[in-house]
Amino acid sequence: MNVLIAGATGYLGNELIKILVKHKKIKIKYLCGSSSVGKRITDFNKSIKSKLPKISKITKSKIKECDIIFTALPNGEAQIISKKLNKRNVLIDLSGDFRLKNSGDYSKWYKQKHKALHNIKKSIYLLPELAEFKLNNYQIISCPGCYPTSILLPLVPLIKNKLIKTNNIIIDSKSGYSGAGRGVHKKFKNKNLYESLSAYGVSSHRHNSEILQELKLHTNKNIKFTFTPHLTPMFRGILSTIYIDLKKNINQNKVINVLRQFYKGKTFIKVANKDVLLSTNDVIGTNKCIISVCKSKYKDKIILLSVIDNLIKGGSGQAIQNMNLRFGFKEMEGIK
Questions:
Q1: Considering the chain, what is the average pLDDT of its residues?
Q2: pLDDT over 70, % of the chain
Q3: Same domain for 78 and 63?
Q4: Who's near 100: CB < 8 A, 6+ residues apart?
């Protein structure tokens, strides 16, 4: 199948290329960008050894030649591209453009109007391990944000199985600075990225809306949570620490058993033994999410640890996992 990657020179675009060049069912036909037209992808990442087309502008005729369009672009851009799709195309978007099903929520959290309202119904938010729908009905696949991926995977099974209280969940997430894209140094120029830890988006981070939407969808409950993200002096990786109150007669072992049963047969999810202290180093370069259930000093509370590589399981790897599911390929195809 022919693939076009829009936003090929960004961190996520680079990771998409690294995986797709190894995918047996895929041919990368076009790499597209705006400020880098005419350059080679090796100008941005010398570790990509395959012979690939030069970077060019995205056009409607190029879209027409391809089966799959990956968009790793600033918010709003995939909506414009979605208007140029024909019946053959499937769009797999790594931005926030189609994550929210309510256009009013999109305007509120992303501070811009949705430019492709008629395409929202053609899209599906797809966290693959939680997929409950037939994917062939959707032309647009919206890939989850990196923070929500690390948060929804441990929480959804516990809420669905009524193990935890849902009125005061505390989520503390720490991410490598690559999550902010190549413009991170300009965006956070006063933060001393390499030597300091910074809280940001307190109570206002746009992933709040995504987490709330998906928790309600999967559990049919209004969940109250507090989510605070942090920027850390590392390039990649996310560690989410989640503080939860247990319901009566629920203990640590029960939580671990439910998580293991829920994700039985899911290649990319691992539930660690109890009280294992996780590191982002455990998942860097992989499409894995590892979850650890740790005891608290209080019997009715536990602490969840969840780690992912934000550029792979929180980005490009998950996008390709979604593509594999959508087209009936082996779920692990191309993903180490």
A1: 94
A2: 97
A3: yes
A4: 106, 109, 209, 210, 213
